[in-house]
Amino acid sequence: MRVEVGRLKAFYNTPLGKAAYEMILRRIEAIWPHADDLDVLSFGYGQEFLNTYAQDTRRAICAAPAAQGAVCWPSSSNSSTTLVEEDKLPFADAVFDRILVIHGLEDADNPDRLMRELWRVAAPEARILMVAANRSGLWSQAESTPFGHGRPYTKKQLNGLLKTAMFQPTAWTRALYAPPVSLKLVTSAADAWEKTGEIAWKGFGGVLMVEAVKQLYIDPQIPNAQQQRVNRPARANVIRPEASRHSRNENDEKRKHVA
Length: 259
Hints:
The chain has helices at 5-12, 15-31, 47-50, 111-121, 155-164, 184-187, 190-200, 245-258; strands at 39-44, 59-65, 81-84, 96-102, 122-133, 167-175, 207-214. The protein is α/β, with parallel strands linked by helices.
């Protein structure tokens, strides 16, 4: 069962939640310094983390699982949030250049189907950033936080899930080295905890974070059992953002050749 949006919002309004937000956001911004003129999608509870890019993206959409619920985002203009079924995302094929998944994977009914859908809506060479609770970390044991619910992952499991869905991992990191307790000693010194944890207990960050690139062809080194065909759900009632930056470039090249 998914954590309800009210609990997610309440957590990120607490001192511990605000500290967790800062620790995760710092890693996201290090991997994605900017998203200028790109089409960006978040799946799960990503609106808090998209605020840093909202002014520069070509389009940003927050997709929230129906079982979780959603809040309107951004608050200052028309909402760009939509409720979705995780195995039937209401978007056309190959439209998003960046996809952020946070609080979206651990409670998925069928992670493989979710990943196939994310692959489908990703543009050629799109990049996906997965944030998932680390099975080896303390946060996956803390039921008082959203990271203590659902299915935590090991690096090996997350790597296998991505490769099966035809995403090639390119960068790994961790965050949330501070213990998941609401003590001022922790919440007021989150940055110090992060820097110490990166050195002293490197494998025990509360969340795993991995960036991966969409592949268009199956790697011949992947065993046949993992070479699964990407299923495409029915395209009824799809939301069609304007063509992505990659699509526009490809169409321009085609017109040049025709001319």
